[in-house]
Amino acid sequence: MTMKGWRLLPLLASAALLLSACSSAPGPSSAPQDGSSDSTLSGAIVDQRWNLLLVGTDERVSMPETPFFQISKDGKVSGHDGCNRFSGQVTLGESQRIEFGELATTRMACPQMEDAQRVTGMLETAYRYLIDHDRLVFFGPDSRVLGGWREGN
User: The whole model's pTM is what?
Assistant: First the structure.
């Protein structure tokens, strides 16, 4: 590792610690990960529709249909990226850890295809989340803000 990398290590560790301590919502819980299929998810992020608010820290996208997703108690996620419907699996862990997997989408073409791909890319890259009132923010593994969502109806 270079000297520059070593200097960044304490900063990244501090950011990760701060991120895990800042949540105003209780952390999610799930049944023990012993391979049983009885696991259920709970927490403020589950059974709630989340509508896209921002991509990155400040970029709003304008699409004919607002991108959204919803996580069910059985660990499934479904939604719309603004162009195509998607579904897949989600895992929630300690310290607001989140991982989306096995995302499958329909393959309709639309004028805002790049924006739609950025939305699904945000989900695929999400590593941690933070809930503040009615807002949900996703962070990447490097603690960079990936985007924000707002509680929907």
Answer: 0.72
